């Protein structure tokens, strides 16, 4: 006997009725970005492995432990995208999108892949919606990017998200901090992997969630104390811009984020109803990334919102985004001669933007009525011999069982009015 096949471990998969939540959330974020002039880019799902090694950083967990890397038939090393920023920046450079008006403001969405240990809210295939704005250093752009994410969160209807912000400063600030941190860590007897991380990028040690490391890190020097005056001033300008836009935030000087390209502003949106995987989205500035990937020396900032976690957040807040009734109207043809006119009627209603189902398979009136009930539709439209002769149909309100006849001419307009 053949064994049943299952989706790979840790993969997020969305089927009805919950799949509707994914579309609604994605569309809310997309619309919020479009209202601020961000244009959509469809990016490849796999890229040259070197893009992530160079762009995201060898010392990050994402690159060192979590990539799905494979060789294609031509012997090239490819990687399923673990995040979107590196790929988008590659695309901007390749298509010379940074040669026109700046900043260039773009969005993307789709599946991303990280070989993490699966748990609630952490999957090996997950979904992000992201934006990137490239080619401006204006602190107000940092505030705009954050405000776009927030507008999306609000359009989804979420109430309990908090915004955390921090600054990683400029290269000089981080160099000073790096030295202080290395000096501090030298006093502890650390394992080999951690020593290796310190060599590659000591800031990555701050991501270590092991309790013994968290204990050591409690007393570690803070990056906020190593900021150069100009980096500090820039951060103050970003905070002032957020204040001016009435955006509430908490400064969290332990927010370093897990990717190496960040400088200056970093931020995260957390939802308190989600347990351990509380970050529903995050982002920040990446001013050296274009140059690192062979482009102009332009700065950029963006965010990636985790759609899977936003879905969990809407469930925690009982927002009910699942689609329990895919159609508003269900057409029931009575008898063979009514099938074609019935489907034509369904087509006509659909063209008037009335979501309409149809009773297939020529069943009895009783079983067809059962399908109508099951569909979750508000109205059953019954079309039979007599109805055809009179150019009218019987409309049954499935909520209260009342029935009335309707002329075909005015049916679509009437139904549209009723279901709104
Ligand atoms: P990130 O923080 O790695 O940033 O991911 C962004 C969001 O994706 C997270 O806050 C989380 O909601 C979601 N996410 C990440 N990994 C998983 C997972 N394994 N399962 C479920 N959800 C997940 C980035 O990816 C950056 N590219 C964001 C960015 C854009 N920075 C600048 N521009």
Please describe the topology of this protein.
Blueprint: H1 19-35, E1 39-40, E2 46-48, H2 49-55, H3 61-65, E3 68-71, E4 77-80, H4 85-94, E5 104-113, E6 125-134, H5 139-156, E7 161-167, H6 171-185, H7 192-200, H8 211-218, H9 229-244, E8 250-251, E9 263-271, E10 279-285, H10 289-292, E11 300-306, H11 307-316, E12 329-333, H12 339-351, E13 356-358, H13 365-375, E14 379-383, H14 385-390, E15 392-397, E16 403-407, H15 408-419
Parallel strand pairs: 1-5, 7-8, 12-13, 12-14
Antiparallel strand pairs: 2-4, 3-4, 5-6, 6-11, 7-9, 9-10, 10-11, 14-15, 15-16
Helix pairs in contact: 1-5, 1-11, 5-9
Bound molecules: histidyl-adenosine monophosphate.
Histidyl-adenosine monophosphate binds at residues 83-85, 114, 116, 121-123, 126, 128, 130, 132, 258-259, 279-284, 302-304, 306, 308-309.
Could you explain how this protein is built, in words?
This protein has 420 residues and is of the alpha+beta class. It has 2 domains: 19-170 and 228-316, Bira Bifunctional Protein, Domain 2 (BirA Bifunctional Protein, domain 2, 2-Layer Sandwich), CATH 3.30.930; 329-419, Rossmann fold (3-Layer(aba) Sandwich), CATH 3.40.50. The chain has helices at residues 19-35, 49-55, 61-65, 85-94, 139-156, 171-185, 192-200, 211-218, 229-244, 289-292, 307-316, 339-351, 365-375, 385-390, 408-419, and strands at residues 39-40, 46-48, 68-71, 77-80, 104-113, 125-134, 161-167, 250-251, 263-271, 279-285, 300-306, 329-333, 356-358, 379-383, 392-397, 403-407. It has an 8-stranded mixed beta sheet. Helix 12 (339-351) links the parallel strand 12 and strand 13. It is elongated, with a radius of gyration of 27 Å. 37% of the residues are buried. The model has no long low-confidence stretch (mean pLDDT 95). The protein binds histidyl-adenosine monophosphate. The site of histidyl-adenosine monophosphate has 26 residues, from strand 6, strand 10, strand 11 and helix 11.
């Amino acid at each position: 006997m053949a064994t049943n096949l299952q989706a790979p471990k840790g993969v997020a998969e969305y089927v009805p009725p919950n799949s509707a939540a994914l579309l609604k959330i994605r569309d809310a974020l997309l619309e919020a970005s479009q209202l601020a002039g961000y244009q959509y880019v469809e990016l490849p799902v796999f890229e040259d492995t070197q893009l992530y090694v160079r762009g995201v950083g060898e010392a990050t967990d994402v690159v060192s432990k979590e990539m799905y890397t494979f060789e294609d038939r031509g012997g090239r090393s490819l990687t399923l995208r673990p995040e979107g920023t590196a790929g988008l920046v590659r695309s901007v450079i390749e298509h010379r999108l940074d040669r026109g008006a700046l900043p260039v403001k773009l969005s993307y969405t789709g599946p991303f892949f990280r070989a993490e240990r699966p748990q609630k809210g952490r999957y090996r295939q997950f979904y992000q919606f992201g934006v990137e704005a490239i080619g401006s250093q204006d602190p107000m752009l940092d505030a705009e990017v954050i405000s776009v994410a927030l507008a999306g969160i609000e359009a989804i209807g979420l109430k309990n998200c908090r915004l955390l912000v921090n600054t990683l400063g400029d290269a000089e600030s981080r160099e000073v901090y790096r030295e202080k941190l290395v000096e501090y860590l030298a006093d502890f007897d650390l394992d080999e992997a951690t020593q290796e991380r310190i060599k590659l990028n000591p800031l990555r040690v701050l991501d270590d969630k092991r309790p013994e490391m968290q204990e050591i890190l409690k007393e570690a020097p803070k990056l906020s104390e190593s900021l150069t005056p100009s980096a500090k001033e820039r951060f103050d300008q970003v905070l002032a811009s957020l204040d001016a836009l009435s955006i509430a935030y908490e400064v969290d000087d332990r927010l370093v984020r897990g990717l190496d390209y960040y400088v200056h502003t970093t931020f995260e949106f957390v939802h308190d109803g989600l347990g351990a995987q509380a970050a529903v989205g995050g982002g920040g500035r990446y001013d050296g990334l274009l140059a690192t990937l062979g482009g102009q020396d332009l700065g950029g900032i963006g965010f990636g919102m985790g759609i899977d976690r936003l879905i969990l957040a809407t469930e925690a807040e009982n927002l009910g985004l699942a689609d329990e009734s895919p159609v508003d109207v269900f057409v029931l043809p009575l008898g063979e001669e009514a099938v074609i006119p019935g489907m034509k009627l369904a087509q006509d209603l659909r063209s008037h933007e009335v979501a309409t189902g149809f009773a297939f398979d020529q069943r009895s009136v009783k079983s067809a009525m059962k399908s109508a009930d099951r569909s979750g539709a508000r109205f059953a439209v019954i079309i039979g011999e007599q109805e055809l002769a009179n150019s009218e149909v019987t409309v049954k309100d499935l909520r209260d069982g009342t029935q009335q006849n309707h002329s075909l001419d005015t049916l679509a307009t009437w139904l549209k009015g009723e279901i709104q």
